[in-house]
């Protein structure tokens, strides 16, 4: 059983995207997120911080298990196989930032939670381009990835409805600096090692023709486009959500 749970990539039939296993797991995740948000909406700040700290420990431990799995099976050719530097993996660091940080450290975490988590988490849940394309639904990495991104969406929604961060020029600049700064680090490491951190070298199982075309024919443009998308898309979605939340609260009053 343990061998199946931690089987090598492509050793068994992968769950795939938009298949019954994926859609069933996706539905369960969305229902769980809704229930969790409903029962968390009136929690005290102390209780929310406690949840964040628990998540920080749990998902760090799960990420360590994932890294050990990768190293044990010899997936060491590229850093992106075992180094947690991707848009969504920033969630792990931000859990610690929000759970234990102060000042600008807390601010970095809070801004990412508010403006990056909903879009990033939902994007993966709907298009699980990595784990579910390589493993069955019951594999550790499939379960880990779906739970991880569900937690992202949950905290992203919670931070939004609680008004943790306001949509403003300052919050946009902090969010942009955080994402683009991480992108620069990833680009440097990719160039030095031939890796694909933050998917900035080429897309992986992403059904978007233009991205695949750019990666093959105009790699520099591809990298720039993806880096900017990491900032603009989540921010744009957050602005729309913030507008809807404000309208809802105003009409409710």
Low-confidence stretches: none
Radius of gyration: 18 Å
Query: Which of globular, elongated, flat, extended, rod-shaped describes the shape?
Result: globular
Distance between the termini: 54 Å
Total beta-strand segments: 0
Overall pLDDT confidence: 91
Oligomeric state of this protein: single chain
The main sheet comes to: none
Number of separate helices: 11
What structural category do the secondary elements indicate? mainly alpha
Q: List the helices and strands in order.
A: HHHHHHHHHHH
Protein architecture, described:
This protein is mainly α and 253 residues long. It has 11 helices and no strands. The protein has helices at 2-5, 20-40, 45-72, 90-100, 103-115, 117-126, 131-134, 140-161, 169-193, 209-217, 219-252. The model has no long low-confidence stretch (mean pLDDT 91).
